[in-house]
Amino acid sequence: MENKIEKLADIIKNSKHLIFFTGAGVSTESGLKSFRGKDGLYSSLYKGKYRPEEVLSSDFFCSHRKIFLEYVEDDQLKNGIKPNKGHLVLAELKNGYIKSCNKINIDDLHQMAGNKNVLELHGSLKRWYCLSCGKTSDRNFSCDCGGIVRPDVTLYGENLNQDVVNEAIYQIEQADTLIVAGTSLTVYHCKWYYIKI
Ligand SMILES: [Zn+2]
Questions:
Q1: Residue 122 is a catalytic residue
Q2: Taking burial as the number of CB atoms within 10 A of a residue's CB, which of 40, 44, 144, 191 is the most buried?
Q3: For 96, which DSSP code?
Q4: pTM confidence score
Q5: What's the CA angle centered on 148, arms 143 and 153, to 5 degrees?
Q6: Which pairs count as long-range contacts for 135-140, CB under 8 Å and 24+ apart, including other chains?
Q7: Residue 136 C-alpha to ligand 1 middle, in angstroms?
Q8: Mean pLDDT of 83-101
Q9: Which tens digit of pLDDT belongs to each residue from 176-197?
């Protein structure tokens, strides 16, 4: 084991363009559930009735907004969640080693740990906006204009932000080391990335 850790440390030290690609699995030690992992969000039905993939879709957001918001609050926006050692180490490595951290998890823990160069491929639950007037907030709010408010995350059935995708592709193409952590890479956007690499 020690040998493997030393080997990894050497790879990191000798990298000129190191990229991390992280999923929800890096946040399980902080108390958030992963999506596809053992005991992950996708291992049981929400309220015994809805598949989580169904709840986190744009169609469901339109047709069952109350349940969608309840689900997001229950499972992803817990109070007191803090970055764990994994996030903190990445923030430390950032000083000289990591060029960027491309994340597909929708929590904000990398940024809370002090990591600034984070590409949010699936957006963040720390940004909410009104679909009518565009007003934004860092949490769910009721807009004065009466418009519908939603989190700035990519739901099933929606496209990723193309600017973020382009930057992520650029960073990955420059990379001499890519470390993937906390994701099974089975989410459909990532399969595409996998082939691209
Ligand atoms: Zn509004």
A1: yes
A2: 40
A3: T
A4: 0.77
A5: 105
A6: 139/77, 140/69, 140/73
A7: 9
A8: 77
A9: 888 888 877 665 554 444 433 3
